Amino acid sequence: MSSTSSATSPARSSSNPPAGAKKVRTRIAPSPTGDPHMGTAYIALFNMVYAHSQGGEFLVRIEDTDQARSTPESEATILDALRWLNIEWTEGPDVGGPHGPYRQSERQDIYRGYADQLVSQGDAFPCFCSNERLDEMRATQRAEGKTTRYDGLCQSIAPAEAAKQIAAGDAHVIRLVVPVDGTFSFEDALRGTIEIPWQQVDMQILLKSDGMPTYHLAVVVDDHLMEISHVMRGEEWINSVPKHARLYDALGWEMPIHAHLPLLRNPDSSKLSKRKNPTSVTYYRDMGYLPEAVANYLGRMGWSMPDEREIFSLPEMQDAFSLERISLGGPVFDIDKLNWLNGEYLRALSEDEFAERAIAWFTQGNRLRALVPLIHQRTNRFADIAPQVDYLVGDRADLTADDFDHKRVASDQARQILDHALRSFDESRGWERDGIFAICTTLAEGLELKLKDFLGPLFVAIGGKAVTLPLFDSMALLGADVTRMRLRSALEALGGVSKKETKRFEKSWRALIARSEAEIVTVDKEDSGS
Ligand code: GLU
């Protein structure tokens, strides 16, 4: 076993590959566990543009090995979002292709075969350790100031003995053998040589006890079988490369070229997060951004045209693309800048095009139809519709602190309500009316407020006025991203939250959630009679 990867030389050239060179094939591999993230769209765009600039191919693979968190709805919204941005793929779960299936949950047997091969070669081993033992081991390592890492206990079980335990049905996972010392190094096509001591690399679980592969096994097997030549992904995956390289080595496969793109950042340079920015592509579609403007903006994240021009189309980007022009300083995703760029695109349309695009936006999907249950019984004339739904179809009015004045809660309390609602909405996975209602009642009870008083500041934050259509339905229709964005801007209108207050709010929110969870457990126990 070598402690360095086979040195593949990175291609840092925009010229076409020499005749006979391997075809460039790239992929985006989203996990369908939530909204379509802007970061996914950005990585997908760079992968597509790079592949096409080299006469290559780009594909979509769905990484749904986390069965508890993956949903078909999330997969569908991710594919829709990519399509909306004019990102095109020639192979994927929706279009098929010669290297399918393109959903990892449908490839289980393939991974198991390779896991067995790795075990028989001595490159992986079955591990029977219980969670309790692993917790204890990690606690001890932490107390000793060491990196937490599997200690290799089950590695010394003789294969015949392990086989006996497996035959007896003992729960086990398969772990990767990694070198205990030395340094791993590889060439990143954007970052040059990267070195990581093996000491920092864990004996990664490859196959879980339910037989599902982990990301690490599946990604290597699939990238190889799908003939991916360039793995271009976010920089958060750099530390996984040693494990992947170990697998390529053990399976006797050539490792693709790796290029780790810089992560998108909030304007305060923290990692782009829904806490600070709308991150879902759906938000931008629903707020009336043009897909070509959003794609143009994403193309400027860490990359620039040779002539530094700010406005360009995807085909123009493709013609001028080279990896050398990617800069590694964290690209800042700035909504104000995007608003400006989108405005440029809108103003460049002819009036007819503008009309056509605006009407398409007003009527997109089921948007207007979905409002009908809310307004039907409240409408005398169709002319009454627009004022009722203004904040649902468009943005709400800008707020000032005075807008919250007549509410029964004081400004400090209003800030706490908005802050706590934001925290709970950030954590919530689903987004439908009943779930939002449940969150609000829990918070109101926790803060010892009548639901009506608790909701006061939320009415203003969402609708910009004291009286709106029903609040929970409004939030459900607006979607999680728009809702969060409005709560954040309402908090700003109320003077923002100081660092000290943030700490206080976080503590009180955590305590409140812990109390309500404890109550749920007690109720469950009573229900089950234990
Ligand atoms: N499924 C991983 C993700 O959601 C993909 C990482 C990779 O591209 O290797 O980011």
Structural commentary:
The chain is mainly α and 530 residues long. It has three domains: 25-261, HUPs (Rossmann fold), CATH 3.40.50; 281-370, Glutamyl-tRNA Synthetase, domain 2 (Orthogonal Bundle), CATH 1.10.1160.10; 395-519, Arc Repressor Mutant, subunit A (Orthogonal Bundle). 47% of the residues lie in helices and 8% in strands. It contains 20 helices and nine strands. The strands form four sheets. A three-stranded antiparallel beta sheet has the order 3-4-7. A hairpin with a 3-residue loop joins strand 5 (183-188) and strand 6. Helix 1 crosses helix 10, helix 9 packs across helix 11 and helix 13 packs across helix 14. The longest helix has 30 residues, at 499-528. The N and C termini lie far apart (54 Å). Bound molecules: glutamic acid (GLU). Glutamic acid binds at residues 29-31, 63, 219, 233, 237.
Topology:
Elements: E1 25-28, H1 38-53, E2 57-60, H2 72-84, H3 108-121, E3 124-127, H4 131-143, H5 159-167, E4 173-176, E5 183-188, E6 192-197, E7 205-207, H6 215-225, E8 230-234, H7 241-251, E9 257-261, H8 281-286, H9 291-299, H10 314-320, H11 335-348, H12 351-362, H13 367-375, H14 385-393, H15 411-427, H16 433-446, H17 451-463, H18 471-478, H19 480-493, H20 499-528
Parallel strand pairs: 1-2, 8-9
Antiparallel strand pairs: 3-4, 4-7, 5-6
Helix pairs in contact: 1-10, 6-7, 9-11, 13-14, 15-16, 15-17, 15-19, 16-17, 16-18, 17-19
